[in-house]
Amino acid sequence: MRYKISALVGLMVATLGWSTSSRATNLYTPINGDSRGYTGDGTWGPNGIWRAECAINEYAKGMSIYSPYTPGTNHSGFVHGLWCYGTGSNNHVPNANEPIDVSITDSQFSPTLLREWDSGFRKAECNDYEMLSAIAQNSSGQALYGRCESASISWTSSVYATACHKVGFTNSDNRSQSNLGGDWDSGSYKNQCADDEAIKGFSVYSTGQIKSIYCCRYTANR
Protein backbone atom coordinates (compact mmCIF):
# COMPACT_ATOMS: atom_id res chain seq x y z
CA MET A 1 0.00 0.00 0.00
CA ARG A 2 1.23 3.51 -0.79
CA TYR A 3 0.20 6.76 0.82
CA LYS A 4 0.92 10.16 -0.74
CA ILE A 5 1.47 13.10 1.56
CA SER A 6 1.77 16.68 0.36
CA ALA A 7 4.32 18.61 2.35
CA LEU A 8 4.97 22.33 2.02
CA VAL A 9 8.55 22.46 3.09
CA GLY A 10 10.81 25.49 3.24
CA LEU A 11 14.26 23.99 3.56
CA MET A 12 17.62 25.50 2.68
CA VAL A 13 20.67 23.26 2.93
CA ALA A 14 23.65 25.16 1.56
CA THR A 15 26.07 22.26 1.52
CA LEU A 16 23.84 20.34 -0.89
CA GLY A 17 22.71 23.27 -2.96
CA TRP A 18 19.03 22.71 -2.18
CA SER A 19 16.72 25.63 -2.80
CA THR A 20 13.65 26.48 -0.80
CA SER A 21 10.71 24.73 -2.45
CA SER A 22 7.67 22.56 -1.85
CA ARG A 23 8.44 18.87 -1.99
CA ALA A 24 6.01 15.97 -2.11
CA THR A 25 6.62 12.97 0.14
CA ASN A 26 5.39 9.39 0.03
CA LEU A 27 4.94 6.63 2.59
CA TYR A 28 5.53 3.07 1.32
CA THR A 29 4.13 0.30 3.54
CA PRO A 30 5.61 -3.21 3.07
CA ILE A 31 2.75 -5.08 4.71
CA ASN A 32 1.37 -8.23 3.03
CA GLY A 33 3.12 -7.32 -0.21
CA ASP A 34 5.37 -4.85 -2.01
CA SER A 35 4.87 -1.07 -1.86
CA ARG A 36 7.18 0.54 -4.39
CA GLY A 37 7.50 3.88 -6.12
CA TYR A 38 10.19 2.42 -8.39
CA THR A 39 10.22 -1.08 -9.91
CA GLY A 40 12.85 -0.66 -12.63
CA ASP A 41 15.38 -2.64 -10.60
CA GLY A 42 13.24 -5.79 -10.71
CA THR A 43 12.22 -8.05 -7.84
CA TRP A 44 15.49 -7.83 -5.90
CA GLY A 45 16.10 -10.03 -2.90
CA PRO A 46 14.66 -13.49 -2.25
CA ASN A 47 11.12 -14.54 -3.05
CA GLY A 48 8.49 -13.96 -0.39
CA ILE A 49 9.79 -10.67 1.03
CA TRP A 50 7.81 -7.43 1.17
CA ARG A 51 9.65 -4.45 -0.35
CA ALA A 52 9.21 -0.73 0.31
CA GLU A 53 11.06 1.42 -2.23
CA CYS A 54 11.28 5.13 -2.93
CA ALA A 55 10.36 6.54 -6.35
CA ILE A 56 12.90 7.83 -8.89
CA ASN A 57 12.79 11.36 -7.44
CA GLU A 58 12.96 10.42 -3.74
CA TYR A 59 15.26 9.17 -0.97
CA ALA A 60 14.54 7.58 2.42
CA LYS A 61 14.31 10.05 5.30
CA GLY A 62 12.20 8.22 7.87
CA MET A 63 10.94 4.81 8.91
CA SER A 64 8.04 3.69 11.09
CA ILE A 65 7.18 0.52 12.99
CA TYR A 66 4.03 -0.88 14.58
CA SER A 67 5.70 -0.89 18.02
CA PRO A 68 9.19 -1.49 19.46
CA TYR A 69 10.22 -5.14 19.27
CA THR A 70 8.97 -7.27 22.18
CA PRO A 71 9.44 -11.06 21.89
CA GLY A 72 6.11 -12.86 21.66
CA THR A 73 4.12 -9.70 20.90
CA ASN A 74 2.25 -9.83 17.59
CA HIS A 75 3.55 -7.43 14.93
CA SER A 76 6.00 -5.75 17.32
CA GLY A 77 9.10 -4.61 15.44
CA PHE A 78 7.40 -4.89 12.04
CA VAL A 79 8.33 -2.08 9.64
CA HIS A 80 5.09 -0.25 8.87
CA GLY A 81 6.43 2.35 6.48
CA LEU A 82 9.40 3.84 4.65
CA TRP A 83 9.01 7.61 4.39
CA CYS A 84 10.55 9.03 1.22
CA TYR A 85 11.27 12.67 0.47
CA GLY A 86 11.43 14.35 -2.94
CA THR A 87 14.82 15.35 -4.36
CA GLY A 88 13.49 17.82 -6.90
CA SER A 89 14.81 15.78 -9.83
CA ASN A 90 13.89 12.57 -11.65
CA ASN A 91 17.35 11.00 -11.68
CA HIS A 92 17.11 8.26 -9.07
CA VAL A 93 18.93 5.10 -10.14
CA PRO A 94 19.71 2.30 -7.64
CA ASN A 95 23.32 1.19 -7.57
CA ALA A 96 24.50 -2.00 -9.24
CA ASN A 97 25.33 -3.78 -5.98
CA GLU A 98 23.33 -6.70 -4.74
CA PRO A 99 20.79 -5.75 -2.06
CA ILE A 100 22.17 -5.21 1.44
CA ASP A 101 21.68 -8.52 3.26
CA VAL A 102 21.81 -8.72 7.07
CA SER A 103 20.15 -12.13 7.35
CA ILE A 104 23.37 -13.58 8.80
CA THR A 105 25.86 -10.83 9.60
CA ASP A 106 26.70 -7.15 8.98
CA SER A 107 26.45 -5.81 5.43
CA GLN A 108 28.37 -2.54 5.30
CA PHE A 109 29.55 -1.22 1.93
CA SER A 110 31.22 1.87 3.40
CA PRO A 111 35.04 1.68 3.08
CA THR A 112 35.92 4.79 5.07
CA LEU A 113 33.05 5.26 7.49
CA LEU A 114 32.95 1.59 8.50
CA ARG A 115 32.52 1.56 12.25
CA GLU A 116 30.68 -0.10 15.08
CA TRP A 117 27.84 2.41 15.30
CA ASP A 118 25.44 -0.08 16.96
CA SER A 119 27.61 -2.54 18.85
CA GLY A 120 26.31 -6.09 19.15
CA PHE A 121 23.65 -5.74 16.47
CA ARG A 122 23.62 -6.51 12.75
CA LYS A 123 24.07 -3.43 10.59
CA ALA A 124 23.11 -2.63 6.99
CA GLU A 125 24.93 0.38 5.58
CA CYS A 126 25.24 1.93 2.12
CA ASN A 127 28.52 3.25 0.74
CA ASP A 128 29.86 6.72 1.59
CA TYR A 129 28.37 8.29 -1.57
CA GLU A 130 25.02 6.50 -1.28
CA MET A 131 21.83 6.62 0.75
CA LEU A 132 19.10 4.11 1.47
CA SER A 133 16.29 3.90 -1.10
CA ALA A 134 14.50 0.69 -0.07
CA ILE A 135 14.01 -1.86 2.70
CA ALA A 136 12.41 -5.29 2.73
CA GLN A 137 11.05 -7.58 5.42
CA ASN A 138 9.56 -11.05 5.51
CA SER A 139 6.20 -12.13 6.91
CA SER A 140 7.77 -12.47 10.37
CA GLY A 141 8.78 -8.81 10.39
CA GLN A 142 12.49 -9.50 9.90
CA ALA A 143 13.95 -6.49 8.08
CA LEU A 144 16.86 -8.28 6.44
CA TYR A 145 17.39 -6.49 3.12
CA GLY A 146 17.91 -2.97 1.80
CA ARG A 147 18.76 -1.14 -1.41
CA CYS A 148 21.00 1.88 -2.00
CA GLU A 149 20.99 4.76 -4.45
CA SER A 150 23.69 7.22 -5.43
CA ALA A 151 23.61 10.49 -3.51
CA SER A 152 25.40 12.18 -6.40
CA ILE A 153 22.65 11.25 -8.84
CA SER A 154 19.90 12.25 -6.44
CA TRP A 155 21.32 15.69 -5.66
CA THR A 156 23.15 16.31 -8.97
CA SER A 157 26.52 16.90 -7.31
CA SER A 158 29.31 14.77 -5.82
CA VAL A 159 28.34 14.43 -2.18
CA TYR A 160 29.42 12.13 0.64
CA ALA A 161 28.04 11.07 4.00
CA THR A 162 29.38 12.87 7.07
CA ALA A 163 28.31 13.43 10.68
CA CYS A 164 26.42 10.14 10.94
CA HIS A 165 24.49 9.02 14.00
CA LYS A 166 22.06 6.31 15.12
CA VAL A 167 18.37 7.00 15.75
CA GLY A 168 16.89 4.14 17.77
CA PHE A 169 13.26 3.05 17.96
CA THR A 170 11.69 3.59 21.38
CA ASN A 171 8.19 3.79 22.86
CA SER A 172 7.61 7.13 21.18
CA ASP A 173 8.52 9.00 18.00
CA ASN A 174 12.22 9.77 17.58
CA ARG A 175 12.41 12.41 14.87
CA SER A 176 15.76 14.15 15.42
CA GLN A 177 14.00 17.37 16.48
CA SER A 178 12.40 17.60 13.04
CA ASN A 179 8.75 18.33 12.28
CA LEU A 180 9.28 17.93 8.55
CA GLY A 181 6.33 16.11 6.97
CA GLY A 182 4.04 16.40 9.97
CA ASP A 183 2.48 13.17 11.30
CA TRP A 184 3.35 11.17 8.17
CA ASP A 185 2.33 7.80 9.67
CA SER A 186 -0.34 8.35 12.29
CA GLY A 187 -0.52 5.64 14.96
CA SER A 188 2.93 4.19 14.24
CA TYR A 189 6.27 4.86 15.94
CA LYS A 190 8.33 7.10 13.67
CA ASN A 191 12.10 7.52 13.40
CA GLN A 192 13.26 10.39 11.21
CA CYS A 193 16.55 11.97 10.21
CA ALA A 194 17.15 15.68 10.70
CA ASP A 195 16.14 18.14 7.98
CA ASP A 196 19.59 18.09 6.35
CA GLU A 197 20.11 14.30 6.62
CA ALA A 198 19.08 11.07 4.91
CA ILE A 199 19.04 7.41 5.94
CA LYS A 200 22.30 5.61 5.14
CA GLY A 201 21.58 2.33 6.90
CA PHE A 202 19.72 0.46 9.62
CA SER A 203 20.38 -2.10 12.36
CA VAL A 204 18.40 -5.15 13.46
CA TYR A 205 18.16 -7.37 16.52
CA SER A 206 19.50 -10.94 16.35
CA THR A 207 15.92 -11.99 15.55
CA GLY A 208 15.88 -9.67 12.51
CA GLN A 209 13.43 -7.03 13.74
CA ILE A 210 14.38 -3.41 13.12
CA LYS A 211 16.26 -1.63 15.93
CA SER A 212 17.45 1.72 14.56
CA ILE A 213 18.13 3.82 11.48
CA TYR A 214 21.48 5.42 10.65
CA CYS A 215 21.24 9.06 9.60
CA CYS A 216 23.94 11.05 7.82
CA ARG A 217 24.44 14.57 6.55
CA TYR A 218 25.64 14.73 2.96
CA THR A 219 28.14 17.36 1.87
CA ALA A 220 30.24 18.09 -1.20
CA ASN A 221 33.45 17.66 0.80
CA ARG A 222 34.63 14.85 3.06
The helix-strand sequence is: EEEEEEEEEEEHEEEE
Shape: globular
How is the biggest beta sheet arranged?
A: 5 strands, antiparallel
Number of helices: 1
Share of residues in strands: 35-45%
Q: Please give the number of β-strands.
A: 15
Helical content band: under 10%
Strand order of the largest sheet: 1-2-6-5-13
- Category from helices, strands and their pairing: mainly beta
* Rounded radius of gyration (Å): 16 Å
Indicate the low-confidence ranges by residue numbers.
3-21
Number of domains in the coordinates?
1
Compute the separation of the termini in Å: 38 Å
Mean pLDDT: 78
Give structural notes.
The strands form three sheets. This protein has a five-stranded antiparallel sheet, with no helix packed on it. It has 222 residues and is mainly β. The chain has one domain. The longest helix is centred in the C-terminal third of the chain and has 5 residues, at 151-155. It has one helix spanning 151-155, and strands at 2-7, 23-28, 35-36, 50-53, 58-65, 79-86, 100-101, 107-108, 122-125, 130-137, 143-150, 160-168, 189-192, 197-204, 210-219.
